[in-house]
């Protein structure tokens, strides 16, 4: 039975520029309560919430962090609610 969870999102660099905010809370519908919400599905939810910018390009090359831990494979991570999820685009410097 579907239920809702809330997560906090943090946007850095190009993700911040694309949507004009550094953070937001997001409510997600979870279809499988035992597993949680797949992190790999989060980009689609964010894009639906923030259409009409270049956020899709940013998310294609970004990495994810959950509770300050970098995620190697978003397909292996399921959100249970209460997590802080960061979108971390590649940065260049010199």
UniProtKB/TrEMBL annotation:
<protein>
    <recommendedName>
        <fullName>Molybdopterin synthase sulfur carrier subunit</fullName>
    </recommendedName>
</protein>
<dbReference type="Pfam" id="PF02597">
    <property type="entry name" value="ThiS"/>
</dbReference>
<dbReference type="GO" id="GO:0000166">
    <property type="term" value="F:nucleotide binding"/>
</dbReference>
<feature type="signal peptide">
    <location>
        <begin position="1"/>
        <end position="17"/>
    </location>
</feature>
<dbReference type="InterPro" id="IPR003749">
    <property type="entry name" value="ThiS/MoaD-like"/>
</dbReference>
<dbReference type="GO" id="GO:0006777">
    <property type="term" value="P:Mo-molybdopterin cofactor biosynthetic process"/>
</dbReference>
<dbReference type="InterPro" id="IPR044672">
    <property type="entry name" value="MOCS2A"/>
</dbReference>
<dbReference type="InterPro" id="IPR012675">
    <property type="entry name" value="Beta-grasp_dom_sf"/>
</dbReference>
<keyword id="KW-0547">Nucleotide-binding</keyword>
<dbReference type="GO" id="GO:1990133">
    <property type="term" value="C:molybdopterin adenylyltransferase complex"/>
</dbReference>
<keyword id="KW-0732">Signal</keyword>
<dbReference type="InterPro" id="IPR016155">
    <property type="entry name" value="Mopterin_synth/thiamin_S_b"/>
</dbReference>
